[in-house]
């Protein structure tokens, strides 16, 4: 199974092998053994699915301490720009971001290790976003960072962010310098 490294250690792109025939296509969306061989040992315990309309921006989210979550994210309908920010204390790439277009068409997945803040922007009319997590949702342990933190400087695929649609929670998130650590 093809895995690609990103400039941030541990953050990996997975491009599944797609088998096409007269019926349509088939691919393995996740194979624990293949992921382990690629160094991804996460034991996933929760699957989430979200539907959003164009311009919806969810993030940047994480859970603190022992509640941190690794995520394996993909799009099953439409297209998003997906972003992960390294917030691992002591990491040489602390505060750096990586973005990638994920779509139902390109079938790419991003593996986001624990210790990252994660978010995505919907580029298509609607999008279905699907992700596996290696730790359970813990409402009281959520943290967030502003999607437009100037110190991080994410380029959201050139999107006009004045028309971004955010949850009330995401409108009042702090910048990285003031983010929740425990
Ligand atoms: C994330 C989550 C939310 N919920 C509930 C809480 C709330 O009532 C409703 C919507 O939650 P939110 O507004 O936090 O959903 P959302 O903004 O989509 O949150 C997600 O954003 C992306 C970027 C991530 O990386 C995820 O980890 C998660 O934080 O769903 C669960 O029951 N379980 C969960 O795992």
From TrEMBL:
Give the protein's biological function.
Catalyzes the epimerization of the C3' and C5'positions of dTDP-6-deoxy-D-xylo-4-hexulose, forming dTDP-6-deoxy-L-lyxo-4-hexulose.
Binding partners and assembly: Homodimer.
Q: In which pathway does it act?
A: Carbohydrate biosynthesis; dTDP-L-rhamnose biosynthesis
Catalyses which reaction? dTDP-4-dehydro-6-deoxy-alpha-D-glucose = dTDP-4-dehydro-beta-L-rhamnose
The cross-references to Gene3D superfamilies, in alphabetical order and at most eight, read: Jelly Rolls
Residues the record marks as site: Participates in a stacking interaction with the thymidine ring of dTDP-4-oxo-6-deoxyglucose: 137
Set out the biological process GO terms recorded for this chain's protein: dTDP-rhamnose biosynthetic process; polysaccharide biosynthetic process
InterPro entries xref list = RmlC-like, RmlC-like_jellyroll, RmlC_Cupin_sf
Annotated protein name in UniProt? dTDP-4-dehydrorhamnose 3,5-epimerase
What's in the GO CC field?
A: cytosol
Question: Which organism was this protein described from?
Answer: Phaeodactylibacter luteus
Supply one GO molecular-function term: dTDP-4-dehydrorhamnose 3,5-epimerase activity
The UniProt similarity line reads: Belongs to the dTDP-4-dehydrorhamnose 3,5-epimerase family.
Asked if the Swiss-Prot or TrEMBL record annotates the protein with the keyword Isomerase, the reply is yes
**Matches recorded under CDD domains:** cupin_RmlC (cd00438)
Q: Where is the active site?
A: 61 (proton acceptor), 131 (proton donor)
Ordered alphabetically, the record's keywords are: Isomerase
> So what EC number does this one have?
5.1.3.13
Q: Where are the annotated coiled coils located? A: none
């Amino acid at each position: 199974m093809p895995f690609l490294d990103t400039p941030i250690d541990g953050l990996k792109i997975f491009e599944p092998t797609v088998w096409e025939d007269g019926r349509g296509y088939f691919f393995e969306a996740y194979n624990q053994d293949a992921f382990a061989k690629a160094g991804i040992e996460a034991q996933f315990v929760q699957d989430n699915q979200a539907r959003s309309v164009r311009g919806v921006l969810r993030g940047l989210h994480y859970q603190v301490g022992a509640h941190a979550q690794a995520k394996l994210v993909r799009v099953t309908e439409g297209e998003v720009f997906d972003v992960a920010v390294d917030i691992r204390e002591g990491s040489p790439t602390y505060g750096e971001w990586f973005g990638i277009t994920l779509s139902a068409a390109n079938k790419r997945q991003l593996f986001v290790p624990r210790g990252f803040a994660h978010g995505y922007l919907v580029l298509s009319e609607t999008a279905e976003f699907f992700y596996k997590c290696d730790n359970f949702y813990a409402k009281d342990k959520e943290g967030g960072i502003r999607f437009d933190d100037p110190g991080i400087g994410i380029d959201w695929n050139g999107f006009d962010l004045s028309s971004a649609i955010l949850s009330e929670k995401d409108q009042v998130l702090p910048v990285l310098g003031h983010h929740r650590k425990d």
